[in-house]
Amino acid sequence: MLVLQKTTSIRTLYSDYERVEALLNAEDGFNSRNFDLFTVSDLIGREKTLPLLSVHLFLQHNLIKHVNEHKLSRFLTEVSTTYRRDVSYHNDLHGIDVAQMAHLFLVQGGLTQLLELNHLDTLAFLTAAICHDLGHDGYTNAYHVNRVSQRAIAHNDVSVQESYHVAETFKILSKSEANFLDELKPQAFKHIRQRMIGCILATDMAKHASDLASLKQLIDSKGISEGENAHLVLNKENDQSLFKSQQFILETCLHACDVSQQTRPFSTVAKWTYLLFEEFFNQGDLEKTHSLPVSFLCDRETTSIPTMQPGFITGVTLTLFAPLSQIMPSMTEFADSAKENCEKWQAYQEGEREKLVYVKCKQQN
Ligand SMILES: [Zn+2]
């Protein structure tokens, strides 16, 4: 790609960054829960969306000076193309959407100050967010395990997709031309790698219940309420306990970011939801073809999408955003928005275009 030619400045590297920057800094832009990624992507072009918005993220958090700019652009372009465009939900747009939410946790939620994060921590958290579903093929872990797929075999049925996403990320970083972290000291790289592995693996829904129980236990034991005593989430006994206590909150927050789409304005929520079900129904079709049990939510003939959303919001989104709002009170509006969306789904009438998801059969393999 032209933009990857020898240039050292990230701003000249992406010639239209200035235009994007104004758009991103507008009201309801990148610093807002109302950020409309679909519209922004239409304006700047799909192939530039993840790289440009990632650059914006790195600039916002003053991370550019710590990395090799030229290699960063190469890395981001490879990440963008490694995400599969034939996958309707778990693609590059979802990656950068989750990263934008991670940014909101850092700035609006005050996670940076709360966890006393240094630049390596922030770099790891945001890069993990951008890459957390890298190379997702549109199927759940259960599907891979049931099919005894190559991915399941490679990862012994343990967090199959998440393990794959981490490995894909570090495979790109292992290429000299894309290793934007290559100027870091080995110990700093190790620190980032540990953080990223933990954060991406924590996006496995199978860990939801146990992580949530640990989070609630932490909040109760430290007497955290509406931001009071929130600093006690850190255990400063020694360097190791500090790292571990920061890591747990970072992992829980990235998991929350991953299931945060229902905290957005309803028009955005509806778009994401139907894209996700397009993927689920495709899996259900394949499960039927291979005489496997059809996974929950994956049967296009028996699933009503609006009917299922309030259960997801109360059972997953709010279970995370409610306790996290105790630690970061400024995140309460996210939980409130999800509650409002719950009511909107209850009254929702699907449009003709949306109904196509129940009959459309996009891919077979
Ligand atoms: Zn995800």
TrEMBL record:
GO function term, MF aspect, one: 3',5'-cyclic-nucleotide phosphodiesterase activity
Alphabetical UniProt keywords: Hydrolase, Metal-binding
Listed Gene3D superfamilies: 3'5'-cyclic nucleotide phosphodiesterase, catalytic domain
UniProt binding sites for Zn(2+) 2: D133
Catalytic residues (UniProt): H90 (proton donor)
The keyword Nucleotide-binding belongs to this UniProt entry's keyword annotation: no
UniProt protein name: PDEase domain-containing protein
Organism for this UniProt entry: Halteria grandinella
Lineage, opening ranks: Eukaryota, Sar, Alveolata, Ciliophora, Intramacronucleata
